[in-house]
Amino acid sequence: MSSCVDTEILSLITQEEERQQNTLNLIASENYASACVRKPLSSVLTNKYAEGYPGKRYYAGCENADAIEQCAIDRAKLLFGADHANVQPHSGSQANMAVYMTALAPGDTIMGMSLAEGGHLTHGHSVSFSGIFYRSHPYTVDRTTERLDYDAIQAQALKVKPKIIVTGASAYSRTIDFKAFSDIAQSVDAVLLADIAHIAGFVVTGLHPSPVPHADFVTSTTHKTLRGPRGGLILCNHQYSEKIDKAVMPGIQGGPFMQVIAAKAIAFREALDPSFIEYQKQVILNAKTLSSTLQGLGYRIVSGGTDNHLFIVDLTDKGISGRDAERILSKAGITVSRSCIPFDPAKPWITSGIRLGTPAVTTRGLKQNAMKQIGLWIHQVLNKPHGDHSRVRQNLMTLFSKA
Questions:
Q1: Catalytic site includes residue 230
Q2: Which among 66, 174, 232, 369 would be 20 to 30 A from 281, CA to CA?
């Protein structure tokens, strides 16, 4: 076997490590997994093919893989209070695909939140499999409040008669009423999928209502607020357990990534620790503080604020696009993601806003006072988009040294 020293790739990994250490990460869908979570990702588990499920594999030599996956399953069920868990999906998108394969036939109607108003590609967008293989009738937020209007969603469901209703979002800062969605789904004989990829950490710590008692299916990523490895997860009741497992494998996937499943198991254990509750509380406090700081500096926050880890800043009256704001802030060492605002007139690759999130900076130990300073720096940079903001970049590191 050739030497394992690949200087080109190792150099790029080192550069990425330095980038992560020396920048302020406000991307709402990113976080920093612990060393314990990362360790199995480079283990010998990557060598093992384990198609199938514990006790029912297509390959020999899976006794350790069986034990690891069963541990991950048991911990996920305990963590979320669910009847059944499938820990094999490679991503949240594939978790959603498996649910659609279980509950729908091609051409059936789905009703999910519009991407421009805060939903996700896999909730029915036309460029996604969810909008290609199924008929999509997306719902939006109220134009005035920029919040979910459950009466309007009910009326839409009665009109289009979806086979599945999808709730959950990637850019919605308010609490979701899963019971209301369940009532709507039942009124039109639809199944309910709750995609909690962004809020899973709050759900397992009781800081956001759980969809598990109300939804037929619950999907999530295992990174973001859950702070595990990149991957997906499906929860359901016993009624769907056999069908969902078959939809994942052999339906859409082959061999599972055992190294990632091991890392998921460790992340679930970490999320069961009482300290995880305090972390999630701080994530919310930080988001609220950063949001209110920017409001005080004259920025309009979509829906007026946040209940969770993220919020959208409307830059329309600042004369700067989301794409340009993302680029300018990046030069100052502040990493954000552009974002549509509800009913955005700008193109989706340009946008009129930016999405800010606090899971990653909270993992690095920052608290409310740091959020106030970050808000001031964001304002300073955006107020002088063509200025030299190298000093801001230098000062960022003082926050982490004090944390």
A1: yes
A2: 232
